[in-house]
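anyone seen this seq b4? input:
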Amino acid sequence: MDVIRPSFLKSGDTIAVVSTARWITEDVFASVEALFATWGWKTKGSHNLFLRNFQLAGSVEDRIRAFQEALDDPEVSAIIIARGGYGTVHVIDQVDFSSLKTNPKWICGYSDITVLHAHLNSLGCATIHSTMPVSFGVATPEALESLRLALSGELHEIQFGSAKAGVKLPQQPLPVLGGNLSVLDSLLGSSSIAFHREYLLFIEDVDEIYYHIDRLLMALKRAGVLNNARGIILGGMTQMKDNTKAFGFDTENPWGHGPEATVHRIAQELNIPVLENFPAGHQNDNRAFYLNVPVLLTERKGQYVLTFQQS
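predicted toks r here
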């Protein structure tokens, strides 16, 4: 598949901040404007950023219009989603993505924004998995700098984890696909998850019970989504917990092992490697990286290296 790759940002370009799910405050937007200005970029906020429909940034119609306007705006070179949570799935089937074929632009975010990543990657577009404005205040310098590098085309590789002896890495460049595991699972049966070619699966998640990770991965496996996976890149599994409540029984019902062990078991069944401790997910050190851009996996000085193929 030919990948649609947006142009990298230059000085003076404009980034749209759009709410497809939850709202942000005026203070958060002001801090984002200030940061982007230091990077040489202008900022344009969607009309619904500060609207409050309970958790959501306005009605479904507000959120559809906000994203559509940013997609179609010729002055906008990239779109970063303001905040995750839940709600992006409401807009995905109502948005016209045809303008990305003639005027592609980077779409950035994580968590709930996995809906956009999976959908656009399935359409052949490259995207950027990254921290979002609501998290800029707590993001590590490395997370923010990686976003700047990714948008400007200066992100060439990520070194991570501890390389384990005997792990067989794919020899050919492969795209990284995936995102938040729970959100990926929610897309099963839709056109938004069409991973029909060989790829590397990236997953992360937050605030799940241990056995839920098994359930989510088993669903992806049984649906055939993992048939073409040639490796699993494991990001943050944060705020996880075992089943320590009795649910009406006299005793607790622990699953007994953590999510990493579950991922390794699934990978072993698929005969593919697991590459742990990738610095992305629901954590302050949430590094930016490209999705649906071929990468070469190698080892260097005891660590794994993800090298992006930019041409």
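The chain has a mean pLDDT of 95. The two ends are 14 Å apart (CA to CA). kinda curious what u guys think
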